[in-house]
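Quick illustration for those who missed Monday's session on complexes.
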Amino acid sequence: MVLEYYDILEISVTDDKEVIKKAYRKMALKYHPDRNPNDKEAEEMFKKVNEAYEVLSDDNKREIYKKYGKEGLQNGGYSGFSGADFSDLFGDLGSIFGSAFGGGFSQRTRKQTATFSEDLEFMLNLNFKEAVFGCKKKVSVEYKSYCKDCNATGAKDGKLQECVHCKGRGQIFVQQGFMAIGQTCPHCRGSGQSSTESCKSCKGQGFEILQDDFEIDIPEGVDNGNILRVSGRGNLVGKDKKRGTLYVQLAVEEDDHFIRDGDNIFVEVPVFFTSIALGVNIKVPTLRGEVELKLPQGTKDQEQFIFKNEGVRNVRSGRKGAFVAVIKTIYPKKLSERQQELLKQLHESFGGESEPHKGIFENICDKIKHWITK
Ligand SMILES: [Zn+2]
Ligand SMILES: [Zn+2]
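Prediction with zinc ion bound:
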């Protein structure tokens, strides 16, 4: 696989963001149309440089590109390079070249596309069980669809003219001291074109909002914060386009009893102190039924008993996590006279004394006394 973006910017695969940024500036200046008038080859290179930078400056896209190349980006919902905002980079360069630079730059790289992205985000709430076991979830998603009457331009009959505010550059320059800072023109939102009359169908927005009702398959084992990609359910930006990608962010409710930590599930099991002292068999409810737990004598409060493969099935590996029962000792709040009597008898049976650990306690007292008098 040829990773030509790195060659275009003349950098290596391991270079960091700073290096990429520097390389981009250098190459963009070298091939900039203002410096290479009527040079088709330079214009072509300038486009490629921008394309390379758009991918390599974005961690996500860069990762996909490294693994799958250009095709990966096209399959991954990043098809088309819809003109990222480079004004932050060219702000200070603008001051070197003056406004002509900004003008030339934005005019030549601009594409007439909709002013909204084809990617769409959606938040979906799931309860604990739905996330652990997966489910089918009916959703109703609102998406943007380009306005057919104005072809997403927002102008009446799609007729646009040069934006008077930025003179068609798409950028305006704000003088700050000695510097002219380039900004995306707020009147035409960087397109360089505006309309004298708005499209009536979309009120000049360029899109209409449509509702889409469908079912999403939630796989077993998803967790809070996971994002599901649903292709073909995003926004529709133009006539010859397909609908983009819908990114569904999952928000999972907590359960009252089960506490989830990744693929492991913790549950607190209250056990009466006499049961703990005697050692008993108890049944513990798990995600998929119940497990039998033989509590040994001498079990401590907060002691954990681990059941492998009784946790959540990992959404990627398919391996199940553990189920952990955490023992919580329960003591009676009140004792009847008979219970007190029985406990006293039990107590005495351990040492015969009313204070079986008296010896140890006295030792400690002596020690402290020794420290104080010293
Ligand atoms: Zn403008
Ligand atoms: Zn319209």
